[in-house]
Amino acid sequence: MDDEFNKSKLDTTLVHGQKPKTSTREKTQIIKFTDYAISRATLHQYDKQGNKKYRRFAKFDGIKGLYLQEFENQKTGKTTRYFTMKIWFNNAAVAITLGQVEPGYGVTEARNDYNELFKTHRHNGIWVKDPRQTRKDKHTKVTESEIIKSQQLTIREVIIRFCKAGYPLAKRQGALSVNSIKEFNKFMIGYNNRLKLLAYGEDKKGHGRVAFKEYRQLNKRFVAKPESWDDLFKKYPVGHGLVKEKALNPNSEISLYDSELGGLVIDKLNYGIIKRYINNEKRAYGTKDSLLDVIRRLWSFAVEEELFGDVPPVIDFTSLIGSLKKPEESKAVGSKYVNERFTKEQIQTIYSTLLTLRTKYPFTAEALMFMMLTGRRETETLKIEKEMIKENEGIIVLPRGITKSRKEEIIDITPPLAVVLDSVSMHTKGKYAPFQFSGWLFPSPRVNKLKLHNDKYIRSHATRLKSVRPCWEALVRATGIFGSPKMFRKTFSSFAKLTLGTTSKARTLTGHEQDSTLDIYYDKTPREEVKKYANDVAKIFDFVKKTG
Fold it and tell me: For the whole model, what pTM was predicted?
């Protein structure tokens, strides 16, 4: 075959003004196999109406099965050209694209690829291997000897296995929480319309669950419910369905699955590759940290599942975490409230305003009151079920499935908290009477009213509150008090420590596992009180007098 390319007729140049030779029998344009001939050739094929075809091709003179294909963008008129082979494989015509005609890929490179395929994929003049499969495997697989050592899965394939396994935890049995799964999916397979086909829930133990659903865009596209994870990725393969709208994806992020890195065999992943992938200058610190968390979990999953073989490669993720540089100032919207808490006067104003908002925001106003009086997190508060309330004992038992610590925690029903619980009950005796059958302490008024008599539906996660934001925004407008619901926990923690005198005592109410956590992150004293403390301490130095 090399001799075929070395014939002198392949090295001739097209004389200026000379027209390409055509075959009237095949009606196929024929040009010489030289870079000069390709650059000068004008491909001309027309349909029955006499219009120029947007896809045109010409055969190379004397080269069996090798063509020049040209595609024209019908909107821009821009054309691109490719070297294409046509072969007969398994009783069917098969087209293989060798490469695009561009600087760095011309007749020399096409000749080498053409010869290589002829040598390695034919036997006794018959094509015995599919070059398309070979080219696909080239990017994701390795030699047979290496396959014996490990399964040689790409990062994409590991992602699919991780999803099929139910998003398992790293250090104990069970699955990630539903919020963690959503966060993982965002960076693993997100920034893509495939996420619209996923529905989330959780079991009694707090383990997240993912199911499939159909997607129907109003008056537009309908996507059927996937039958499986394989079906989901078949509907939205690599690079398809990317979210490109600036409002939804301002930094033009691409998920790990859809990125070029996703095609890498996970065995080849190393410290440098991860660091370069994460350290995109457009990414915020939080995004980099989340991406690293996803990659680290996929890596540990591959180790657990023995996907690497007997000797897994080692990556120092601790050093990678340490290499992430926090910005001097966080760009996160809520970061300005990190070191803030509400004053007692503000708390009183917030509570009285929430009383007026109960009618417009039933259950949500009470949920905010609950958070204020107990210092519990929003996610924990909104997952409380009525059966967790032990009225005879005067406590609310939070099972390990809904607490951040994954340990059972107890809330004492104080007189103020009892008032809030009574307010919730009043709702279910009036306009929202059907919700008395709901298992949730804070059900969502925005439910399918036709299903309220369906016991399974009304006790499902679909009928509980998911957010307190609408009510909170109304409260901010009414009071002018800025902040976030997260500040309730800091406020409660600070008041608890101030009232009880020690961190260890306050920790019995807040649920923090370590004194240092409460001291560093939650004991937030307002500037006015800090100034008062400073003046009180300054009295010790009363011997210092102004002179002169």
Answer: 0.59
